[in-house]
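F.,

This is the one I mentioned.
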């Protein structure tokens, strides 16, 4: 049975709770200031020309505080994005259904992410540039976990379609999911690189690319054979070279 706190102990407990609450609020406030400072400087000054020290000064915190949350400048870039990317992926997970078509599920997943990346295209371009070999830093594992969840959602969508017999394939859904994710990544980069971020047009092009990947290009069997290229004879090569 728990012992009831006396009046003095009760006041001390309340003070500790209040102190912890205030410390937590201070931590959240510093984190938000760091994220805001990094976002503002990356956009206004440029990622390459911004230093970690400038971000600390703009946020009104010490360098040690910055490194509590991020190991380096690239980590700071993903510190800005990770929470929103996680929320976007959670929302996409709610939008897919075992009863929906493969294309419906894919466009639900990718549509949510296109919408996210369109909100701040300058930052989005930076993230896509820096994420290519992003494998170190505090925020890296968090980002990679979110990326794996997106791929998992795509694989689930393929598996749903396979179980519903709306697609016929002997290939592993994980491999198919990875291929479709790669198509999405290339199309997303191509869309963000353009000057006019037309959301509807971007999704329509992505849908066409996904459709080609899913439907295929109806190849003849001979086009899939690995035939050795025909070689010109040495005499012909010499004659062509001497002309």
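My design for it:
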């Amino acid at each position: 049975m728990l012992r009831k706190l006396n009046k003095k102990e009760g006041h001390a407990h309340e003070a500790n709770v209040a102190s912890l609450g205030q410390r937590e609020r201070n931590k959240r406030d510093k984190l938000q200031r760091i994220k805001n400072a990094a976002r503002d400087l990356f956009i206004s000054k440029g990622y390459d020309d911004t230093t970690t020290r400038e971000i600390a000064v703009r946020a009104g915190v010490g360098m040690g505080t910055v490194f509590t949350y991020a190991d380096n400048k690239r980590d700071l870039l993903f510190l800005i994005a990770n929470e929103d990317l996680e929320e976007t992926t959670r929302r996409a997970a709610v939008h897919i259904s075992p009863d929906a078509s493969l294309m419906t599920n894919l466009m639900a997943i990718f549509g949510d992410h296109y919408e996210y990346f369109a909100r701040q295209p300058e930052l989005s371009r930076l993230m896509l540039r820096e994420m290519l070999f992003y494998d170190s830093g505090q925020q890296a594992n968090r980002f990679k976990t979110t990326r794996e969840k997106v791929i998992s959602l795509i694989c689930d969508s393929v598996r749903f379609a396979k179980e519903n017999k709306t697609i016929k394939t002997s290939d592993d859904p994980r491999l198919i999911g990875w291929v479709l994710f790669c198509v999405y990544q290339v199309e997303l980069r191509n869309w963000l690189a353009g000057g006019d971020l037309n959301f509807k047009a971007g999704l329509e092009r992505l849908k066409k690319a996904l459709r080609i990947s899913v439907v295929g290009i109806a190849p003849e069997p001979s086009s899939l054979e690995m035939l050795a290229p025909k070689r010109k004879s040495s005499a012909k090569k010499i004659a062509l070279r001497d002309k």
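Residues 158 and 241 are 53 Å apart (CA to CA).

Talk soon.
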